[in-house]
């Protein structure tokens, strides 16, 4: 699952590649002007890749990281 920047700004990651995350964990934040938007994990899984450098400029819609979702119960 790809996690994208909600708007243009500077990204700061709270996770690293290979890290396990649960629903609601903070993955990163994007800051622009005095607005900061946290990006929360929508699914449990493992962060498979970061697609930008920490504290780099990103455009709205840029893929920031990828999560390999954990299998759901009963699947």
Automatic annotation (TrEMBL):
<protein>
    <submittedName>
        <fullName>Acetyl-CoA carboxylase biotin carboxyl carrier protein subunit</fullName>
    </submittedName>
</protein>
<dbReference type="InterPro" id="IPR000089">
    <property type="entry name" value="Biotin_lipoyl"/>
</dbReference>
<dbReference type="Pfam" id="PF00364">
    <property type="entry name" value="Biotin_lipoyl"/>
</dbReference>
<feature type="domain" description="Lipoyl-binding">
    <location>
        <begin position="9"/>
        <end position="67"/>
    </location>
</feature>
<dbReference type="InterPro" id="IPR011053">
    <property type="entry name" value="Single_hybrid_motif"/>
</dbReference>
């Amino acid at each position: 699952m790809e996690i994208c920047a909600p708007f243009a700004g500077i990204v700061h990651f709270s996770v690293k590649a290979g890290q396990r995350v649960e629903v609601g964990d903070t993955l990163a934040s994007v800051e622009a002007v005095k607005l900061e938007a946290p990006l929360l994990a929508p699914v449990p899984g493992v962060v498979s890749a970061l697609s930008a450098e920490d504290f780099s400029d990103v455009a709205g819609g840029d893929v920031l990281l990828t999560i390999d979702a954990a299998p759901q119960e009963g699947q």
